[in-house]
Amino acid sequence: MNFKRLERLTSYLDSLIINNVLPCVDCAINIGGERIYRHTAGYNRIEDKTPARQDALYNIYSMSKVITCTAALQLWEDGIFLLDEPAVKFIPEFADCTVRVRNADGSTSTEPLARPITFRDLFTMSAGLTYNPDVPAIRELRESTDNDFGTVDFFRAYLREPLSFQPGSRWLYSLCHDALGALIEVITGMRFGEYLRKHIFEPCGMKDTGFTLPADKEERYAGQYRRTIQTDGKSVMEYIGPVCGYKYSDRCESGGAGIISTLDDYSSFAEALCHGGMAANGNRILSSAAVRAMALNQLDGERLAFFSGENPGRSGYGYGLGVRTMIDPAKAAVLSSEGEFGWGGAAGSYVLIDPANDMTIVFFTHMLNGYNAVIHPRIKSLVYSSLD
């Protein structure tokens, strides 16, 4: 690693604070299992200039998905299900799914499933689900339970809503990984969060990761902001506090976006995946074969076009079992290696896992509606250009 060149990364991260682009930044790079870079800057609360802290807790939003898919892959490698096995085997309501279709006159109707939804469909966001929880079935669930329902309850109700396409025919970012969380509960008989604690968090030494913000850790919560555009066109950061729009009830644990973590905790998890499923403390959370399968592109043809076309930052990437995966660095126009994989979160968090270079990059910030599509590629370029 050329540490002199890496100073450009520090300057760039600091510029995001100086220019009021982000409220805080925290970035760590590990190579060969060793921490070779850490930079934290900005504010825990901009309003009172409370400095950002390295043990801060963040909503990681969709970076929860990588954890959820790892947990589901544990059950796959244990032979409990096959990737192309129907999920209805464990949650009967999958059998009741229909598909919404648009008729020639512009009206809509429903048609039956051409085939059952499989586990592979759920891992690869190809099941036909959407990301809209504000649907009649969920509103009815909220009313009938006084908003007191669990992870499996949520999904059993959600499956009453028509799918947006036939399983396996498209790629659409959706609640598919929340479905995996519900399936983990049914399969194991454990609450989803408890399963994660026992099989991922504790083995990786992730002491501050979970679905809730404990009262004794509230002071460590990084102030969360949302970028808004005022009527004069000026961009401002609005403080929104410790909320998560994907927390559907106190007992519903969102495998897609509900986890709270610290940078050090998530870095420990990323390191385990980088090293073939083996955590730094010697605990194995996944086999090396399962990690390789996770990072293999699962999409082709139309589904790959939907995936890359939805977001320009995905050009050159495919999608594996719950992660983006680099398949064409030239097309991506970035400096990272073929086979690097990871994901990001709505408030700006980002993870890159590169087994070829034995490297992980974890970046945390806490602002919704931010500049992820601009910031994340720059961080990648600055890191990779410093490798030699």
Explain this structure to me?
It is a single chain. By secondary structure, this protein is of the alpha+beta class. It has a domain at 74-192: DD-peptidase/beta-lactamase superfamily (Beta-lactamase). The chain has helices at 3-18, 64-77, 119-123, 136-145, 151-158, 176-188, 192-204, 263-274, 288-294, 301-310, 329-332, 372-384; strands at residues 24-31, 34-45, 50-51, 58-59, 98-102, 108-112, 225-229, 235-239, 260-261, 317-319, 324-326, 341-344, 350-354, 359-364, 367-368. It has an 8-stranded antiparallel beta sheet, with helices on both faces. It is globular, with a radius of gyration of 21 Å. The relative contact order is 0.18. The mean pLDDT is 95.
Strand order of the largest sheet: 3-2-1-14-13-12-11-10
CATH class of the domain at 74-192: Alpha Beta
Cα distance, first to last residue? 6 Å
Helix and strand string, N-terminal first? HEEEEHEEHHHHHEEEHHHEEHEEEEH
Q: What percentage of residues falls in helices of 4 or more residues? A: 25-40%
Low-confidence sequence ranges: none
Oligomer: single chain
What is the CATH architecture assignment of the domain at 74-192? 3-Layer(aba) Sandwich
Question: What shape does the CA trace take?
Answer: globular
Query: Care to count the β-strands?
Result: 15
Q: CATH topology of the domain at 74-192, anyone?
A: Beta-lactamase
At the fourth level of CATH, the homologous superfamily of the domain at 74-192 is: DD-peptidase/beta-lactamase superfamily
Largest sheet: 8 strands, antiparallel
Average pLDDT figure: 95
Q: Using only CA atoms, what is the Rg? A: 21 Å
Q: Could you say which structural class the secondary elements and strand pairing correspond to? A: alpha+beta
Count of DSSP H/I helices: 12
Strand content: 15-25%
